[in-house]
Amino acid sequence: MRINFFNLTLSRQQGMASAIVALIALIVFTPLCGFIFDCGCTWPGLGLDEGCNFHVPEAEYRCPWCVSLFAGGLSFVLALLAGLWAAIRATRDRFSGRYELTRRVFIGVVVFIVVAVLAGWLTAAQQGYPLNGF
């Protein structure tokens, strides 16, 4: 079964992997923000951005992704597109079929996280935000 999406023909495995990568990206982006910037952002259901230093007016430094919705949004979109591209373009190998979906999702999520961390570093450097953990 093939899926047509904006003149891009995807196999069933590519389409499912893309959807799963996008869902995981939406769930882990805010906790990843908290991990990169140590700003207080956490998992959905545990407060999300309630503890973020963005909400503390007297904070010396405020979360770069929350301060600049453009930077945060651009970081997310670039990381998501890279993760989706990796999930779609992952080549088939001897594990095709049985483990293809798992492999595509794993590759897509890893690429998403790597690009998001790099974008976070660039955003922090541009805004002068200290990255104590890195």
Automatic annotation (TrEMBL):
<feature type="transmembrane region" description="Helical">
    <location>
        <begin position="65"/>
        <end position="85"/>
    </location>
</feature>
<protein>
    <submittedName>
        <fullName>Uncharacterized protein</fullName>
    </submittedName>
</protein>
<dbReference type="InterPro" id="IPR035906">
    <property type="entry name" value="MetI-like_sf"/>
</dbReference>
<keyword id="KW-1133">Transmembrane helix</keyword>
<feature type="transmembrane region" description="Helical">
    <location>
        <begin position="105"/>
        <end position="124"/>
    </location>
</feature>
<keyword id="KW-0472">Membrane</keyword>
<keyword id="KW-0812">Transmembrane</keyword>
<dbReference type="GO" id="GO:0016020">
    <property type="term" value="C:membrane"/>
</dbReference>
<feature type="transmembrane region" description="Helical">
    <location>
        <begin position="20"/>
        <end position="45"/>
    </location>
</feature>
